[in-house]
Fold this sequence. Notes:
Order of helices and strands: HEEEEEE
Number of domains: 2
Radius of gyration: 17 Å
CATH topology of the largest domain: Jelly Rolls
Largest sheet: 6 strands, antiparallel
CATH architecture of the largest domain: Sandwich
CATH superfamily of the largest domain: Jelly Rolls
Structural class: mainly beta
Strand content: 25-35%
Oligomer: single chain
Amino acid sequence: MKRIVGGLAALALALAGGTGMAAESPGVQVEKLMESGASWDGRPYVAYPSGAPMLTVLRITIPAHSALPWHTHPIPNAAYVLSGELTVEKKETGETRLLKQGDVLPEMVGEYHRGVTGDQGVVLIVFYAGSRGLPLSQQ
């Protein structure tokens, strides 16, 4: 286990600092899936919440023919589509985006939106960057 943790730490340092450590590890490949300073509708993220950082990662499974309730997020987060398809809708404008397996979405902060599935369900991995005591979403 120690060897794996050390290898992950070296990779994280290489990615963060650009030291080239990943290049020194044979077989290691790095693919940036997303980098964004704005949510999918183009609205910039303005700040992280104050307080002690709290990272949360959820695996969310939504069955076919489902609609999540309209909700907002008080914190930046990003969703990765592990499998299936999901249409995200912005309540204010009706703007939509279709997500498929392998897509990454920078989610909205402070804007009402929801996810809707069609004939396929979806499995998401969602990464939240918040602070202790803040909810991940609100209705």
